[in-house]
Amino acid sequence: EAGKDRGEVKVFLPDGSLLRSVGHPESEMRVPLGITTDGEGNILVSDWDSHSVYMYNESGEFLLKFGGKGSVEGQLQYPRGICTDSSDHIIVADTWNKRVQIFTRHGDYARHIHIAAGTVGVAVGPEGQLVLTNWNDHIVTKFPSY
Questions:
Q1: What angle do CA 19, 126, 105 make, to 5 degrees?
Q2: How far apart are CA 111 and CA 98, in angstroms?
Q3: Hey, which end of the chain has fewer CB within 10 Å, N or C?
């Protein structure tokens, strides 16, 4: 069936065999672009089309969804990169709103940082630095703290 696997994340074993597929039970997740795990082994996926972040447990069971299209605190517009930090904050590149949003491990809004247009990648460095990549300017920005 065409498009049957669209919106799923596939988890593979090191030998390349499929372990499981992870997707929203109502097929809401349509264009997953970013993926990470947290300290508890949960899988977090940013979805461009639904403007949301989806969380699944290690077994692939859907736990929660947060975000939704908009520009107020906690809402997202075309999220891209996603990562977690040592405190299990969820950090999301909120691309069209020109900010990085930081959420609690339960998906509640905590704070945000204004950023340049085109920021798509987020990571946390070994000393806790926030690292951002920007496809417009082809630059990497490092914040010593956030």
A1: 60
A2: 14
A3: N
Per residue in 24-71, pLDDT (tens digit) is 777 788 888 899 999 999 999 999 999 999 999 988 899 999 999 999
Half-sphere exposure at residue 33, Cβ-oriented, CA atoms within 13 angstroms: 20
Query: How far lies 132's CA from each of 9, 44, 62, 64, 125, in Å?
Result: 24, 18, 28, 26, 10
Identify which of 126, 132, 145 has the alpha carbon closest to the alpha carbon of residue 100. 132
Q: pLDDT band for position 128 (50/70/90)?
A: very high
pLDDT tens digits for 74-92? 999 999 999 999 999 999 9
Q: What global pTM score does this model have?
A: 0.90
C-alpha 54: how far from chain center: 8
Contacts of residue 62, defined as CB under 8 A and 6 or more positions apart, other chains included, come to: 24, 25, 54, 55, 56
* CA–CA gap between residue 69 and residue 75 (Å, rounded): 6
The answer for residues whose C-beta is within 8 angstroms of residue 125's C-beta and 6 or more apart is: 131, 142
Name the token pair of 107: 């998906």
